[in-house]
Design brief:
By secondary structure, the chain is α+β, with helices and mostly antiparallel strands. It has helices at about 5-75, 90-95, 130-140, 140-145, 165-170, 235-245, 355-360, 380, 385-395, 420-425, 460-470, 475-485, 510-525, 530-540, 560-570, and strands spanning about 105-110, 120-130, 150-155, 175-180, 185, 190-195, 200-210, 215-225, 245-250, 255-260, 260-265, 270, 280-290, 295-300, 325-335, 345-350, 365-370, 395-400, 405-415. Among the domains are: about 15-100; about 175-310, SH3 type barrels, CATH 2.30.30; about 515-570, no CATH class. The protein contains 15 helices and 19 strands. Strands 3, 6, 7, 8, 9, 10, 11, 12, 13 and 14 form a ten-stranded mixed beta sheet that branches.
């Protein structure tokens, strides 16, 4: 055989051998891939079977809970067998006579920016009357037995709204006046009192409280004369001012004294609240406070007004008429109505802060005001609510438990997430340079640990002045500049028509402020897992102890977005 033919034959054998090896490798790869797919399918089947078992257990638990509720109803002393409906016809006839709440129907405009071009320009909105909700609430004996309508309570553990500062100092919620030695004192009055050493001191009556033993206590803010000032703040200019009646408000922890320590009333004027101050009268133009362990001075205008400065309530028509003051907690949040299409409704709810915390957290004690249609505006929807609340702030006669009573209700707290909360305080969204609804700190300074925070806080009366400047500006570009400078929206919230301190009574949404960072950390952590690590993580995840009424937790690896959405709703 020629040499060329022999070489060609060897090359063909080598090529066939290489091709055969490639085919074998491909078969092995396909076999391995098929095996992995089968393993994954088995794992998914096991997980699905486990989930089905958990769902069955959850349904059984729900059925047992419903049975326990039925047993409780039957064994209730007020239950009578004649109350049971025996047929559907009787049930339908009874349903027509149910004492349902009247519904307020109002047409509101729909923004074309959020809805399809084929949508109508307005929609009907439906909401319940807050006055009707309050009336039914007060006439429900099962709810009234849990309610608290007294003065603020001086407690070390702050677990209820009546343990807080707002309840104690606001005339809308707590006790705002007290008779001491036949003299009527009101919260917000300036007084002389004896301190624990028996010395005569100046102070402001911040709130009238009771302790757990039922004795009255008074919360006092110190007012200092020149001789009491810290050494680094003394000087000839302040000494001369003190001769003409200048005193200084101290922004430190308030004192708690007994009613027997009160001596008499005194008139002291705040400089920024009065234009003409008589010569020789006591006045306050500065506040002393501590920052970074050093005493400082700021203008008295940089302080929160006492509620008595902007709230006055009417007395009931009869002195014998019982008085009920209601602390309303307003909730507002958007929620999606469809899974795959962005179409949100704005839910507006109220809770009564007069209930203890363990009662407020129950779903049955959340009262729906209404739902804002997709594309509608909160301010327009809330017009009927605001109109009723302005009447309730002044006081209104209602029949409660068979007798006339004087009802006062005020907006205590507004609860909302980051964007809606800023809207309801008239502040720009949280991604703006000054997007905090509590202070004017810029983005670059948010992490500064030694800043003088009280000088950057937002105060209601100062915000009012800034909003007035914005509204008077006719040039649009200049108006936008002022909005950016102050960190405010061009139009205030409709809630500003009620008596409240917008920045104090709209607390920060802690969960939404941190949930984004936690979610990102969870996602990065899950991406670092190997296949074995994922299996171990999921096994541990399934063993987390959760309340029996919760549904099962979604898989945080395969259903990351659903997991975050579920946990946010649970929180």
């Amino acid at each position: 055989m020629p040499k060329e033919e022999e070489d060609e034959g060897n090359n063909d054998d080598n090529n066939n051998q290489v091709e055969e090896e490639c085919n074998n490798d491909e078969e092995e790869h396909n076999y391995d891939e098929e095996k992995r797919n089968n393993d994954e399918k088995e794992r998914n089947n096991d997980e699905e079977q486990c989930n089905n078992e958990e769902e069955e257990i959850h349904q059984i638990v729900e059925a047992l809970d419903a049975y326990e509720d039925l047993v409780d109803i039957i064994h209730n002393s007020q239950f009578e067998p004649t109350h049971m409906v025996k047929n559907i016809q009787r049930f339908q006839s009874w349903r027509k006579r149910l004492p349902l709440l009247p519904i307020i129907i109002k047409s509101i405009k729909i923004s074309p920016k959020k809805t399809p071009s084929t949508s109508r320009g307005s929609k009907l909105s439906y909401q319940l009357s807050i006055s009707e909700i309050i009336w039914r609430f007060l006439n429900n004996p099962m709810l009234m037995k849990h309610m608290y309508f007294g003065p603020g309570i001086n407690s070390e553990e702050k677990s209820e709204f009546w343990h807080g500062n707002l309840w104690g100092k606001s005339p809308l919620f707590g006790q705002h006046e007290i008779l001491i030695s036949e003299v009527l004192y009101r919260s917000g009055d300036f007084v002389y009192y004896h301190d624990d050493n028996g010395q005569k001191k100046l102070g402001r009556l911040r709130s009238i409280l009771k302790n757990h033993d039922g004795y009255y206590q008074l919360r006092i803010q110190k007012i200092l004369e020149y001789s009491d000032l810290p050494r680094n703040l003394k000087g000839l200019p302040r000494q001369r001012c003190s001769i003409t009646g200048e005193v200084w408000l101290q922004d430190e922890r308030f004192l708690i004294i007994m009613t027997s320590q009160i001596l008499e009333k005194v008139t002291i004027l705040m400089m920024f609240q009065h234009q003409n101050i008589p010569d020789g009268s006591l006045r306050i133009s500065e506040i002393i406070y501590k920052c970074n362990d050093r005493w400082h001075v700021r203008n008295v205008k940089l302080s929160y007004l006492h509620p008595s400065d902007y709230i006055s309530i009417r007395n009931p028509p009869s002195s014998s008429m019982p008085i009920y003051k209601l602390f309303l907690d307003l909730y507002y949040d958007d929620f999606g109505t469809f899974r795959n299409v962005y179409h949100s409704l704005g839910g507006v709810y109220v809770q009564f802060g007069n209930m203890p915390a363990h009662q407020r957290k129950l779903i049955k004690n959340h009262f729906v005001i209404g739902f804002i249609p997709f594309g509608g505006k909160f301010d327009e929807f809330m017009i009927p609510f605001i109109s009723e609340m302005k009447e309730l702030e002044k006081g209104k006669v209602m029949t409660v438990q068979g007798q006339d009573a004087w009802i006062i209700a005020g907006l205590g707290v507004v609860t909302a997430d980051l964007p809606q909360g800023n809207d309801m305080t008239g502040v720009l969204r949280h991604n703006a340079n000054k997007g905090c609804r509590t202070c004017k700190t810029t983005k670059e300074s948010l992490s500064a640990h030694n800043q003088d925070i009280v000088t950057t806080l937002r105060y209601h009366h100062i915000t009012d002045e800034e909003i007035l400047k914005i509204s008077h500006e006719t040039i649009m570009s200049r108006r936008d500049q002022l909005c950016t400078e102050y960190g405010l929206r061009s139009l205030p919230s409709i809630l500003d028509k009620l008596k409240r301190e917008r920045h104090l009574q709209t607390p920060q949404d802690v969960y939404h402020a941190t949930a984004g960072k936690i979610g990102r950390l969870l996602k990065l952590t899950c991406e670092l897992f190997s296949r074995e690590g994922e299996d171990i993580f999921i096994e541990i995840w399934k063993n987390f102890e959760i309340p029996k009424r919760w549904s099962r937790l979604p898989n945080p690896i395969t259903h990351y977005n659903s997991c975050l959405l579920y946990t946010s709703r649970c929180v």
